[in-house]
Every structure is written in structure tokens, then in C-alpha cells.
Amino acid sequence: MIKNLKATSTSTKLPVAILIALAFTLTLTLIASAQGPTPTDDEVNRIAKQLYCPVCESTPLDVCPTEACRQWRDLIRTQLAEGKSEEEIKQYFVEQYGARALADPPNRLASYLVPAIAILFGVLLLARGFQMWMKPSITETNASDPRGEAKSVDPYVAKLEEELKKQK
Amino acid sequence: MIANFGFGVLVVSFLVTLYSVFAAIYGDRTKNAAMVESARRAMLLTWPLLTLTAGILIYLLVNNHYEVQFVYEVTSRSMPTYLKITAWWGGQSGSLLFWSWLMSAFASLVTLRKWDRDREFLPWVIVVACVTMAFFIGMNVFFENPFMQLYQTFDGIKPATFQPADAVLFTPADGQGLNPLLRHPGMIIHPPMLYLGFVSFVIPYAFAMAALITGRTDDRWIRLTRRWTLWAWLFLSFGLVLGGRWAYDVLGWGGYWGWDPVEIAAFMPWLTGTAFLHSVMIQEKRGMLKHWNMILVILTYALVIFGTFLTRSGVLSSVHSFAQSAIGPLFFAFIGFTLITSAALIIYRWDSLKSETRMTSLLSREALFLLNNLLFMSILVVCFWGVIYPLVSELFTGQKVTVGPPFYERATSPLWASLLFLMGVAPLSAWGHSTVKTLGRAMWKPIVGAIVITALIFATYTQKVGALIGFFIIALVLLVTVYEYWRGANARQRSQGENIFTAFWNLTGRNRRRYGGYIIHISMMFMAIGIIGIEMFQSETQGTLAQGQSLNIAGYEVRYNEIASWDNMPAGVRYTRSSIDVYRDGEFLGELNPRIDYYFDSQQTMTIPGNRSTLKDDLYILLVDWEPVSSSGATFKIYVNPLVNWLWLGSLLFLVGIVIAAWPEKEAERVAAKARVRAATKQPSAAD
């Protein structure tokens, strides 16, 4: 009797197991079809290139050889397969690892403003310098120019110089 | 025992350097020539002392003395002897000792040869050189002792300079081995070259300070150090080029320059050094910009120390972070001290540094050189800000950020383009005076030529606007430079009756600085071609291939054949080497073997690309991953880098140009050159 029961139980379990397996396969297929085709390495790297490895600093994620980075690249692949956009994936990494995960500082204005101001200051300084150097000076004459190059642009001084030379 | 002796010699070196500083100051203040001579001899003594120290360290490295912490950290039994020797600069404390050793060699060279001509400067040159040396040797003595030994204590194994009580010497069976990335030939030579560049820039700075202290602020310090500056520039440039080549060969990102903070740290003194090399000519020819030249040489020195600080302190994490320690604050204090002292001296001598002449034209050579300086300084500002911005951001907002290549490329591209354009204009302008008319007359032919070349490139190679602008500037500079060369050689042909080759040779030999400079300009254009190629036309793809499968990229077909893995136990390496056949239009071009080397001692890997190089492009293949069980599939990353070899070709020509410019002139040539300068300064013209 017990043997028969066991036989009955086995005979009913098998179709159930097959049904479960079929359902599982169907679900996976549906998920996979919802996700679309698996993203290529190039699609993953296009995003990974814009991210920096959160562990090995100063190394872009697309070329970092560590196991952790390999997993992060797989994460990008999964998120791409889920239909997430480039911006959403980058945002995910920023939320997880902070702004240092981005190749570019998030506050672009601040990062460019300071060097821009410094360069502008240099330009103004040079312009002022040119203005000063070009200004004609009464005291500076060709005679006082040890390298014999600076010619006074003041016609009066030039005339005076000529007269002095003639007298000598 | 040997390690303790090494440390003892190091301490003596430190004391001798300090003695030299005080003896030089005392000798100068009391006008005691014997004391100054004693200081000089003490400084000369530092080199043999540091050589002995280095010799002891090398002995320990080569003979596997793993009880010494430094030896344990940077070597292993499987390393060949030459790598054990070069491991001297492969770690923190050893590289600081290497810095001091090179510095002592340069300081000795300065005071060994014809030193009596510079008696006035000598005490202060000794002071500056020895203060710098004392700082670095002091780092070794007090914080980074390369002779520290490992001791077994009750609390475990600890490194100590002197044996702690109740402790016994501990000798590990084997060392950890050198970082595999540092075993590459490029990396063996790259640090010494950079360090040579760094330490040789200390010499112009020492003379500049001596000039300020003694009040001899005329051209003398510049004339004395001109060649030193050129050699320093040569070493630094060579170091940077080698670093780029090393990155291309072993870092596995298909590029040569990653804008890593430590790369930038070595690049910043190069920028100020290059600006100095140009602006110093204005002082020599026109007696102008004396303040500015002082500022540039001080900045270069400060950036040299700053560069060493960034590399050695680990303040900024990067691929170079193998050398981190807590010596940062001392470096910072030293940089502050030198900057404040130098600034105070400039202010003190402000009046005596005034220009002797005035600017007469906005298009004169000196005005264009000033613009060149402004551009170099602008690039420096971008680089400096990019390096410190993560720290500033963290300090003020608590947010750590990364400043990667996009920032630097966007910010510096227009500056580089302007700088290259100036290279085309400046050689045609005259010292003293140039007008739009004279410059236009000299430039119209090269401009027309450059337009024709750009049109040809547009028709046959690319329609990208950015690249076309770049190629136009390159063509212009090349034509201007070749035209200048041809003009000089032609003149010689007519006046001396020489054939064209002899005329070219003699022309360069008679004015090495000028024509060496032109070769450098040509080489920069070659490098620019390579940079445009890789930055604007690089293609890349990645894919997993089964045996016999192919990937196509930029006209190449790359077919995966097989992969093999084997151990080389004596060398301590496991090689995994793939075989790839390369085809183009169905024609077999050859086999490439990208591989991954795994080092057992350091448990690190190194990716070696398979590379097919031509002047047209590089096919660069990296083995990313593979299936170890069946060996049936492997993942490859493939780059096609157009024109990149022009970068390396340009780098080689660049070095040739510097050697020509820095090569010492014969006495007769020097006299003739001075006469030429005198004649030229009496009548300004574009010919100089």
C-alpha cells in the first residue's frame, strides 16, 4: 500500500516538476525578451569610458583589469539590458560611489571658472605690460640703451639726440 | 651590520651637507675664502659618501638581504640581477636616496669644473644645492630609512632602524618582488631620466638665487646656466617621452597619456622650463623680463619639488600610488619655505631687475615670445588646477571628484593650437621691430602652401574641422621652419660656395641653439600629427571570439587562432599568450601575440599588447580575458591608432634637437656667435 502510494506520489510529482520547469523557462524567456538583446562589449565600454573605477583611482572603468571593475562592467551590461539610459546608469554609479565615479567633475562651471579667471588675469597683466613697455619715455634714449635697440618714438627726443651727436 | 653601516654613512652625508651650508654662509659673510673652499670640498665629499651608501643598498638588494625592509618590499629571489639593481628607485626610500645621489653628482659637477670663474656666486650656489640635498637626505635619515631592518618582537614583526629590546632579527625566506609594471625597460629608465631633469633644474635655480643674494642680477647667471637648463630640459623631456611609451606598452589602455596627476606633476616643471628657455632669450638679446625669468626659474624649482612631493607622498591616489607615505607635510613646508624666501629676494632686488630696454612692437620676436610664455603659463594653470581641484572640492564641499582627460583636453586644446601657431609666426618676426607688413610679406608663401596642403588632406583623408585646423597649423609651421632653414643654407651656398648638404650641416653647427630649436619645432609638429591621429581618429572595439572567429575594425580583420598558458618558474611568471592572425583586404599581414603575464611574487598581472606599427597606424590588441578550461574563447580589445608613430618619431627628433641646441660650442664659435649677436642687435632683423 505504502509502495503504491509512493508510486502514485512519484507519478503525480513528475508532471508538476515539468510544469514548474516549463513555467520557469517561460518566465526567463519573457524577462529576456523584455530586456532585449544582450548589449555588446562596445556598448558597455562606451559608458564605462565615462566612469572611473571607484577602487583604483585615476583608472577609467573600461580599461581597469581588476575583478571588481569587471563586475561593474557587467552591472552596466545588465542595466543596459534592462533598458536604462546612459544618464541613468551614470547616475546610479554616482549614487553608489559618489561624484568621483565620473570622469568629469559634476560642477563643470566651478572646475573651469578658476583657470579661466587666472588666464584672463594673465592676459590683462600682459596687456598692461605691453602698454607700459610701449609707452615712450623721455628719460630713456638710445644713448642709455645698452643693447642699442630701443629707438625713442618721441620726435623731439630723436631730434635732440641727432643734434647732440653732431655737436660731439 | 652592513645595513647599519649604510645608515651610518647616510647620517654622515647628512651632517657633511649641513656643514657645507653653514661653512658657505659663514665664509661669505666673513669673506673667509678658506671657509668657502672648505664648504665646496664638503659638498664634493657628499657624492662619494652617497655613492658608498647607494653601493651598500645595491649590495643588499642584489644579495637578497630580506631582513632589510626595503629589500624585502622591492625584490624577490626570482628577479634577475639587473632588476634588483634598478629596484633601487622602485620604492619610496630608495628613490629618495637616488634623488639625493643624482643631486650630489650635479652639484659636484658645477663646482668641480671652472668653479673659480664664479667665485662670487659659489657660496650661495653651495647653500641652495646643499639645503635641497640636506632636505632629501634628511627625509631618508629621519622618515624613510632604506636600511631599516625587520625584527621579531612580542607584538609581531616590526621594522626598526635600531634593534629593539628583546627583539631578534627576522629574515623572510623571499621578498615581495617589484611591481610588474616597474619591470618594463621603459620604466627602468623613465624614473632616472625624470629625476635627472628634476635635479638639474636645481642648478639654474641655485645660480638665480646666488645672483639675487649677491646683487649680480645681470645676464651672468643666465649665461652660466643656459646649458644646464637645456640638459635639464632634455632629461625631463626624455623622461616624459619614456613614461608615455611605457604607458602605451604596459598599461593597456591603448594610449600614451592619461592625464594622471603624477604625469601632470612631471609635466608642470617642463611647462615652466620651456617658457623659461624662450623668455631667457629676451633677456639675453634685449635685457628685458629679468623679473619674469627669476619668477619662472623659481616656479620651475618649486614645481620640481612639488612633483617629487606628489609622486612620493601619495597625497593624490593614482596609478603611481605604489610609493605612498606620510612625508607630505614636510615637502609642503619645504616648498613654502623656498617660495617665500625666493619671493622675498626678488622683492629685495626688484629695482635692479628692471628692464634695460623697452618693447617697440607688438609683433616683435620678444612680444611673440611673451605670448608664448602666457600660453605655457595658461596650460600650467589648467594642469595645476586640475591636480588640486579634487583636494579643493573635498576640503570645501566634502565631495571627492575626479578630474579626468575630458577636462584637460577641453581646456588645453585651444591653448596648444595657439602655441603651435605661434611657432609658425615667431621665427619670421624680428627682434626689436616687426610690422604687419613685414610679417605678412614673410608669411604669405607658407600660408598659401599650408592652405594647399590642408585642401589636399580635406580631399583625401578627413573632413573633420578640428583636424583640418590642426593640419593647417602643422603645415604652416613645417613650411616656415623648412623655409628658414633653406634661406640660411642658400645664403651659405652663395657666400661660401658650399653644396646644399654641407651648407645645412655648417649652418646648424654655427648656430646650434637656433637650428637645434628649429629641429625641436619640426619634431613638435610630428608629435602633433601623432596626437591628432590618436585623439581624433582612434577606433576601438571589444569582443569575445571562439577559435577561428574574426573581428573587423578600420579595414583590418583580426582572427583568433589559439591561446596557450605556461609557467616560467625561475622567472616567477605565468605567461598566457594568444595567437592572432591579421588580414587587410584578404591579405595576410602577420601574427600578433597579445598576452597577460602573472607574477607569482607580487601576485599582479601585466597586460602586454600585440602591436603592428606603421607610419599610417598602429593595430593594438589587448587580451582582456580568456576561458581557461577549454581555451576555446578569448576576449580581445582592439584599437586602431592612426598616425601614432609620428608621435614617437617626433619624440626622437625632439631629443636630437635638444642635444644639438645644448651641445657646447668651440671657443672660436662662441666668439663668432657673440660678434653676430652684437651685429644683429645693432640692426634688428628677422635673421636672428
In short:
The complex is a heterodimer of chains A (168) and B (688). Chain A is mainly α and 168 residues long.
List keywords for this structure.
heterodimer, A: 168 residues, mainly alpha, 6 helices, 65% helix, rod-shaped, disordered N terminus, B: 688 residues, alpha+beta, 6-stranded antiparallel β-sheet, 4-stranded antiparallel β-sheet, 19 helices, 13 strands
- The structural class of chain A is mainly alpha
Unreliable stretches of chain A (pLDDT < 50, length at least 5) are: 1-10, 138-153
Strand content of chain A: under 5%
Estimated structural class of chain B: alpha+beta
What are the secondary-structure elements of chain A, in order, as H or E?
Answer: HHHHHH
Residue stretches of chain B low in confidence (pLDDT < 50, at least 5 long) are 318-323, 680-688
Alpha-carbon Rg of chain A, integer:
39 Å
The total strand number of chain B stands at 13
- Shape category of chain B: flat
Q: What is the rounded distance between the termini of chain A?
A: 144 Å
End-to-end gap of chain B: 62 Å
Please, what is the oligomeric state? Answer: heterodimer
Mean pLDDT value of chain B? 88
* Total E-strand runs of chain A: 0
- Can you give the helix content of chain A as a percent range? 55-70%
Strand content of chain B: 5-15%
User: Biggest interface, which chains?
Assistant: A-B, 47 and 60 residues
